[in-house]
Amino acid sequence: MSPAEIQRALLASYDHQGGINHIDGKNLPSDESVNWLAAELMHLLFPGYFEHKPLTKSSVPAVTAARLQAVRTRLEEEITKSLNFVGDHAPSEHAEDLACELLAQLPAIRDICQTDVQAAYEGDPAARSVEEIILAYPCVLVISIQRLAHQLYKLNVPLLPRMLTEYAHERTGTDIHPGAQIGTHFFIDHCTGVVIGETTRIGNHVKIYQNVTLGAKSFELDEDGNPVKGVKRHPDIEDHVTVYPSATILGGNTVIGRGSIIGSNVWLMKSIPADSIVYYEGEGTSVVKNQRDRKRSSDAEKPTADDWMI
Fold first, then answer.
1. Fewest CB atoms less than 10 Å from the CB: which of 11, 102, 130, 169?
2. Span(s) in the chain for CATH 1.10.3130.10
3. Per residue in 254-303, pLDDT tens?
4. Fold exhibited by the domain 193-310
């Protein structure tokens, strides 16, 4: 086909194939702008780490003021587009307030991001410095961006929170929904192939490894066969839990008790009590054992038939 024929065929497709066109519609948030915002917000959270030249103490006030102004302007623009998309009656005015509310949370978000960096340093014997973690560990990017997006999610800003987390998803291979609630000292080791769903709740001092899924067991459908929105679909992970590679934990009623260890390749759709171990055996059985009932030894015995079988 000639270029003109290709153009005519594509325009005909636009005319006849609906559903994936957005022509003569409302202006949507710009992917390029959202990616820029994500990068600039990381500069504000971690000043001096991603600069082209060293950031001196004397220059911090001016640099921060300029960056805040630029971010606020762009943030207001993209929030305005997002609110206009859902028919907000005063999108520009509301966008100013919402942008200010997010930026006002930056000091508190920095406080919690520091705990994430600390968790990575303490949780990985290969880590040589905090600088290495912030510059090179993908978990810092994906968790920090999610914490920012979560604030916008709580403010009911449409579109933009998910676009921010997708920026981190594309760069790290880890997909954390902006709705997920995450406590302090969160560490994702290796940070590849992880999926954390919208209604997941994660406590403090939780460590997970690559390819872990915290997902939905099934979707409740309405009378028209469409998924019901806004219901609890994803699990709760309590404090001081470790989840090893390729584990899958599903369901809105599933609770992983405090201090538990979930082994590699485990598939869980039921709650387990605090201080439990779950691991995969050759026949595909997951075994749960309450650690408080185990004798502390350097060579712990395997669970027996008396253990709780999932």
1. 11
2. 27-173
3. 999 999 999 999 999 999 999 999 988 776 656 677 765 554 433 444 44
4. UDP N-Acetylglucosamine Acyltransferase; domain 1 (2.160.10)
